[in-house]
């Protein structure tokens, strides 16, 4: 078992705590161009995701696992399509719990 | 069982997450013996698994609950085909754990063939330990189709931990943690001992996390029901 390289559950508002560290988040894709993919986090912040885009087309909701470059941008390692429907409210609450009272279950 | 509106035990009893109401809390003096009548299915994070209290899986426990079958959700980051054994390395974001799936029948091979690298999967299995290394003996692996299941799994991990550390004791036959600790200290063998009981012993015997135990001891102390002999030892102030 190896717990040395976790990816923390974050929303837009929590990214500032983890700048430079490995994070994971789900966002709704707004736009995709040469500069990267722009999306909306589960708490309504705008995020920019950089890095080589995957070979497959992105669905409405996408999970990004990567390094938080700034409090609003991510350098992606892994892109996971999460489909066209997703419960963002529950995910957002999970991010808050996973960084609050129950942080010890995650990192 | 609960006086509140949400009956967690009833809500989860069909899925087998919690021991049923008919199961009694194990006698504290035998808390480390395996209770074979209780089959638990616990959703867990790999981080939790890495911190289990014992290296021997036959007596592993977490927050007072026996660990039998567990379920994890994560991404397959590596796969090895050593037929009939298939080894998957699952990363759930909190850590990575190796899961072995043995396939002998066509149905089992079909299940394994559905899994590919990079995919999110749900795993059910038994914890096994070999020379300090923990892994899972998986009896079911299936791809995740609805990604809300990922959110749901981690929320369930949080709920089960909350239940085992707080709610179970709060509502268990109307006894609070304070009452449990007081009853423990009023046992004849402890009443007779003027040196008191070390708080680590109380924590271990009652399967209580230290912070919960200290809250109870401070509250009992304030009400003059127990007193502390030194920084770590406590005694009941009242003879039973």
Q: Greatest interface and its residue counts?
A: A-B, 29 and 29 residues
Overall morphology of chain A: globular
**Which assembly state applies to the chains in this document?**
heterodimer
Q: What is the overall number of helices of chain A? A: 1
Global geometry of chain B: elongated
Order of helices and strands of chain B: HEHEEEEEHEEHHHEHHEE
Residue runs with pLDDT of under 50 for 5 or more positions of chain A:
none
Structural class of chain A: mainly beta
Helix content of chain A: 10-25%
- Fraction of residues in β-strands of chain A: 35-45%
Biggest sheet of chain B: strands, sense, closure? 5 strands, mixed, barrel
Q: How is the largest sheet of chain B built, in terms of strand order? A: 4-5-6-8-7
Strand/helix succession of chain A = EEEEEEH
Q: Ends of chain B: how far apart?
A: 28 Å
* Strand-pairing-aware structural class of chain B: alpha+beta
Largest sheet properties of chain A:
5 strands, mixed, barrel
Protein name (chain A): Replication protein A 14 kDa subunit B
Organism (chain A): Citrus sinensis (Sweet orange)
Organism (chain B): Citrus sinensis
Protein name (chain B): Replication protein A 32 kDa subunit B
What does this structure look like?
The complex is a heterodimer of chains A (107) and B (240). Chain A is mostly beta strands. Chain A has 1 helix and 6 strands. In chain A, 10% of the residues lie in helices and 39% in strands. A 5-stranded mixed beta barrel of chain A has the order 2-3-4-6-5. In chain A, strand 3 (36-41) and strand 4 (46-50) form a beta hairpin. Chain B is elongated. Chain B is α+β, with helices and mostly antiparallel strands and 240 residues long. Chain B is built from 8 helices and 11 strands. The A-B interface holds A 1-4, 6-9, 24, 61, 63, 65, 78, 80, 82-83, 86-87, 90-91, 93-94, 97-98, 102, 104-107 and B 45-50, 75, 93-98, 118, 120, 133-135, 146-148, 151-152, 154-155, 157-158, 161-162. Chain B: It comes from Citrus sinensis (Sweet orange). Chain B: This is Replication protein A 32 kDa subunit B. Chain A: This is Replication protein A 14 kDa subunit B.
